[in-house]
Design a protein that fits this description.
The chain is an all-alpha fold and 323 residues long. It contains 17 helices and no strands.
Length: 323
């Protein structure tokens, strides 16, 4: 066990910093945007396509699909957003979350001090709220990069540990890898952290691309836990929104695991010449975009079935206005 402590302790430090930075960055972006995010969700979700685009934009901005979907569920619960309006946002959030994996694939950890220094300076020297909030975003971004850098440096010695390499090879079993990815995501409460670690491990050649893809798919399932919990005790429409998220992710994951070999070949072809970590980040994008494209035409059908299976309570239905 002692031989692993020099790896585990820095890895834990980097992971904690990464998770804190994600939350800190998200809070800073929320502070800058204020109530405009809710306005955008209500205004630009008139149909599935605009809902998807809105979900992509807001999730990319907040760097958290769970936060966007939970916010959407809350809006559906208060009837500020209809159940059908919310479905496009859920699909778009799954695409928007891939922005973080693309960012992680860049080797920019060594530059973490620059946005941290600028951000801290803005927070300390400016009296204006929006400048201070912008500083918080930069500081959070820098801490995110630093956390990734610490994790990347920490796992490098694992390449020379036979026990670790043997365990990592076991993740080549797609279903087992997906189960591990889902479990880690539920534990960390962040699919971005799970995918980020997978990108780092693949970049260090500790993971094969198929194993990384399986972990990534599992992370997509694990992130449903937050949204399902957020749906409990809410209206039937809000609960249907959480169930739609689960249904979509399960469909994509099962199909992806069944077709993992041709999907891996597709990723390798489209990412020819790209570094290992970048290939997994690209796989994350391809997986979610393909899933949305395959299911978007069936959204009205799925929505109708969910409404039939879980209809609104009488108290939740709009009451006729008396003359």
């Amino acid at each position: 066990m002692k031989s692993y402590l020099p790896v585990l302790l820095p890895l834990l430090s980097g992971l904690v910093l990464f998770l804190f930075a994600l939350n800190y960055l998200s809070e800073g972006l929320k502070a800058i945007s204020g109530d405009r995010l809710k306005e955008w969700l209500g205004r630009f979700t008139r149909n599935v396509v605009t809902g998807i685009l809105t979900g992509v934009a807001i999730t990319t901005l907040l760097d958290s699909s769970s936060a966007v979907i939970i916010m959407t569920i809350a809006l559906v619960n208060t009837r500020a957003l209809s159940f059908r309006q919310a479905l496009g946002v859920v699909l778009g959030a799954n695409i928007g979350t891939t922005f973080s994996s693309q960012l992680i694939a860049f080797d920019i950890g060594q530059w973490a001090g620059l946005p941290m220094a600028v951000g801290l300076g803005l927070m300390l020297l400016s009296q204006r709220d929006w400048v201070s909030q912008s500083g918080q975003v930069l500081l959070g971004l820098g801490m995110l990069f630093l956390g990734l850098f610490l994790m990347e440096e920490a796992v490098e010695p694992l390449k020379h540990m036979p026990t670790v390499k043997t365990w990592m090879q076991g993740l080549d079993s797609a279903w087992w890898g997906a189960l591990i990815g889902a479990g880690v995501t539920v534990l960390l409460q962040s699919s971005s952290a799970t995918v980020g670690m997978a990108v780092i491990l693949e970049g260090q050649q500790l993971l094969t691309l198929p194993a990384g893809i399986a972990l990534m798919m599992g992370a997509e399932l694990g992130t449903c836990a937050d949204t399902l919990v957020a749906s409990i005790g809410r209206s039937r429409a809000a609960l249907r929104t959480g169930l739609f998220h689960l249904t979509f992710n399960l469909f994509s994951i099962v199909l992806g695991l069944l077709l993992i070999k041709p999907f891996t070949a597709l990723v390798q072809t489209l990412s020819a010449g790209a570094p290992a970590g970048r290939q997994l980040a690209n796989a994350h994008v391809f997986f979610n975009v393909i899933g949305v494209v395959l299911i978007v035409g069936f959204v009205p059908f799925i929505a109708t079935r969910l409404e039939q299976w879980l209809p609104d309570n009488h108290s939740e239905k709009p009451q006729p206005v008396a003359n």
